[in-house]
Structures are given as C-alpha cells and as structure tokens.
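Milestone M4 deliverable, item 7.
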Amino acid sequence: MNLVQAARSAATQGHAAAGHELAVLVAVEFAGQRRRLTASARLARDAAAVGAEADEVISAASHGSSATLEPHGGAVGDLDFDASLAEFEELARSAGARIVATLFQRRARPDAATLVGQGKLEEIAGVAASTGADLVLFDHDLTPSQLRNLEVKLPCRVIDRTQLILDIFARHARTREGQLQVELAQLEYQLPRLAGHGKAMSQLGGGIGTRGPGETQLETDRRKINLRIDHVKEQLESVRRIRRQQRQRRESVPVPVVALVGYTNAGKSTLFNALTEAGVLESSKMFATLDPKLKQLQLPSRRRILLSDTVGFIRNLPHTLVTSFRATLEEVERAEVLLHVCDASSAIVEEQKKQVEQVLGELEVKGKPVIEVMNKIDLLPREERARLAAGQQRGETVAVSGLTKMGLGELLAAIDEALVADPLIDARFRVPQSEGAALAALEAGALVREKSFEGNLVLLTARGPASLLKRYRRFREQA
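Output delivered:
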C-alpha cells in the first residue's frame, strides 16, 4: 500500500473508530513556571469538572520527594496550571477521548529522556495498565527521542499536545483545502519522528493520533515522506491560485473583508450565524470551524462587507499549523478590520486575549483596526454586564451575545465606523427623474436622509460610502 492509499484508509478507519478511546492525561509543571493559582483559574477548573461528570476521572497524585503533586498553583505557558489542565481535558474530549485518569508531576526541569521522572513513569504505566487505557496524552510537546522512550516503557500509544491538536484538525477538515493543510502539517510533524515510532506506526488502525497520513511508517521512509510533502505543497499552491483568482474577481467590485478571530470556542461561528444567517456548524467542541467561511453582510449604512469566519486559536498553537494554514488565514491577512471575539464568561479571558494577539503577531496583522467583541454576555451576572456596558460607552469593547442576538446592532455600527478604506461621507444630489439607475443605486447603497422634488429633479441628501457617492459626482450640488 502506498502512502496516499494508507492516508486515505487510515483516515477513514480513524473516523469510524473515534469516540470512546480511554485516555490517561499527564500534566507536568516545571518549577520555573510556577505561579500562585488565581481565583479565576480555580473557577475555570471547577467549570471543567462539572462538564466532565460522565468521565471517570482518577486524580493519581501523591506528596513527597517524588515531586508528584496535586497542583496547588503554577502555570503552563501563560495560563494558570488548573485552567491550562481544564483546557487540555477539553482538547482530549474534542478528539473523542474518555478520560480515565489524570496524573500530575512538578519537577525542576524536564527529563531529557522521558520528560517525567522514572518513578512517575512507572506510575503512569501502572495506571494505564489498570484502567485499560488505549493511549497516554501528554500536555507537552515531546521530542522524537522522548516519544520513542515513552512508547517502550508504556503499554499503550503515546500522544503529545501537537499530535492531539493535529488529530482534532483532521477530524474537522471538510474541504479539500482543509484536508491538504492538515496532511501537510501531519507530514512535517511526522518527518523527524520516523525512526522507531513504535506502536503508533506498527499497523493501520483507528483512534486519536492516527487519523490522516502517518499510520504506515513501517513502509514509509524519509524519501517517500518528502515526496509526499512536495506533492501536497503543489496541490495547496493550486488551491491558493484558485483562491487568488476568486479574490481578484471579488476585488474588481471592491467589498471590504471583516474577519472574525479569537480563541477556540469563543463563539465565533454562533456570532457569524447571528449576523449572516449562514447556518454554519456551531459546536462547543474545540476547533469545530476549520475551513474558512465567507458571507456577504449589509451594514446600517447600506454598505456591504464580506464577513469571514476563521479557525480558532489556542495557546502554543503548533507552528506547523500556522504555516500550513496560511491559505486559510489569508482572509485574516487581507481583512480591513478584525473582530477579536472573546468569551466574556471565561475565567481566563485576559490570558486568552494574549494568546490570540501572539498568533496575530506571527501572521503580521497586529497593525490592523481591531474591534474587541465580548461575546456570551447572556452567561454573565447583571453587575458584570453593567461593567461591560460602561466599557462599551467608552468605546473600548462591544458586548454581544451571538446566541440571543443581544448587541448586534451596536456591533454593526462599530464595524461601520471602523472601515476607513471607503469612509462614509455626506453629499447632496440633484438627479433628473429620467436617471432611474442612478436613483436606484443611491437609494440601495446609501442612507437617504432627505428627499424632495423640484420639477423633474429629485433632490437627495445621502450618507454612504465614498466610492459610491463619488460615482455620481456629476449630480452633486455644489456647495
């Protein structure tokens, strides 16, 4: 079986088998990352626990010199440890895992061979064996040697954070472009891990971490992988060429693009549907939106824009994904205005904002106008809504609920004000009644504030985009 056939076969089997794999989660806190646990992080952890009632969660932890601790504080990346762990648990569930045990360890530094210490590794092996786990998920990226060593010691498959995220992306890719981008990211992840990738490469099979290309490495060598990478890049370039042609056709009749960006599960797709009635998939699972969506939308000024729904960001988003998904993220790069959608009900909303800003910096789009949209305000208590309303009056944020459609009028007005490439202007026109096409265009594309008749002339005072009103400058009244 060649690489292409293997990828297709394994992707099909992976989707069929997904949904009930038993997983042991391993989170490690290093001393240099330790911080005092905030109250907001505890709230996030408690909220995650409520959503996990169906899971049999075993917190395997002990105290002592083995440095195995229940996390009383600390951080992974820029997030508090508990909030970070809650997020990782949600990632695992989004991939179809059933969490049977969660283990923690605090160390001064990572072990070069296995990330965790020898004692903890034996504990992980015992818990995995006793629970019948199908895989062990590490909330860290593992080096190729660490991955190989762990697979020798543990009785099941080992998946690191990047591989888990790639798997979720493979699950949600629907378009040919999305599938190619996932495949490219998986191949580039797989390339340095070819030698002795043990259980995950021993046979075709379904399950987390085995979707897409990368299941038949026993017969796939580095040369074949590189050839496949080159082929996928060629196909993606063809997709980008078609996208450029479509964009050029759009730009022949310029319509501004406004892109929704934000942390995964911030409610971007729900807000996109509320604004456009597009009916795209809404899901509480992470990365439910993978393929970009574009829909035309009319603003209060009668201007039309293209609203783009994009993939959500997350802390430590694998660099291979940022690179592979450039074609998808081109709409963000070319957008005139970004709507940074935040989950106002999240206890770690400030940390999530920073993570999104970091990815926007990688895309070199931080200089664009950004409207901060605080979504899900229907989940907030009354006093918190009042605080957001005060911030909205100062022009700092726009508070909305995509689910209940609260605040959408204010959001559309804010978009109107933020579009500077084709600003709104006021003008007065004297148009002959025989110029029906001009009258119809002005009334359809601008707000007509006054209208009267003088003989065979129609006198209009209109406010609309400069590109439209200047098109009929021959009918404008001179001041």
